[in-house]
Amino acid sequence: MSDGTSGAAGTLPQAMIDQLVANHREFLRFVERRVGDRALAEEIVQDAFVRSLDRGEQIRDSVVGWFYRVLRNAVIDRRRRQAVADRRLDQLAAELESRDDEGDELAGVVCRCVARLAGTLKPEYAEALQRIEIEGVAVKAYAEAAGISTSNAGVRIFRAREALRKQVARSCGTCAEHGCLDCTCRAPGP
To answer: Which CATH architecture has domain 119-178?
Structure first.
């Protein structure tokens, strides 16, 4: 169905393009009723229009009727892609949830090991780690409770972390560098 104004084989003639543009609002309403979202409907109509410009050879009857079929198929394709994406997200959520269970167990093992090692530090370091790192007390609040300056508390927590890092390295060896996965560490020695 060519009117001779087509540039290349398969390209829609200008008269057909004009018909599509003239029916844009109807096309948009058609798609919006099916997807329930104006922005998504605009995106689908625009994509369908762009993809249709080089498909002039497929039109056997009315360009408007043909384009409604194109839009219906575009909506169906969009729903299928969304369903696939939703299934993938559900699978990912289930996978992450199962990993959280494993992560909680691992964190418990690691935390018990590190807590045991923290107990071997100087009492003021162990207390600073307990209050700031475990209990989540702000450094300033810890300093006030301990009767020291905020800068002194900052130095203390820094030194406590360094002392704990050295204890973990001494006790756990390569686990300290590569991560504890099975805590079979030996007790810290002098």
So the answer is: Orthogonal Bundle (1.10)
